[in-house]
């Protein structure tokens, strides 16, 4: 999950410094969240239930990262409306 939250928070901080509108900032954060979540596919889980799988967790997107990605996508969508 932190693999997504850290870059999302950094993106939102930068958007705030640039005085971007909320919809624009959330759209950028959503895009960052998607790429960060996808980057977990090549990682071995070290926390949570997936950690019990060891190397077998490699090749699967982290569920926590995916949930954060979906949340950011929905926030960005809601901000557009």
From TrEMBL:
<dbReference type="GO" id="GO:0006071">
    <property type="term" value="P:glycerol metabolic process"/>
</dbReference>
<keyword id="KW-0808">Transferase</keyword>
<dbReference type="Pfam" id="PF02734">
    <property type="entry name" value="Dak2"/>
</dbReference>
<keyword id="KW-0418">Kinase</keyword>
<dbReference type="GO" id="GO:0004371">
    <property type="term" value="F:glycerone kinase activity"/>
</dbReference>
<feature type="domain" description="DhaL">
    <location>
        <begin position="1"/>
        <end position="77"/>
    </location>
</feature>
<dbReference type="InterPro" id="IPR036117">
    <property type="entry name" value="DhaL_dom_sf"/>
</dbReference>
<protein>
    <submittedName>
        <fullName>Dihydroxyacetone kinase subunit DhaL</fullName>
        <ecNumber>2.7.-.-</ecNumber>
    </submittedName>
</protein>
<dbReference type="InterPro" id="IPR004007">
    <property type="entry name" value="DhaL_dom"/>
</dbReference>
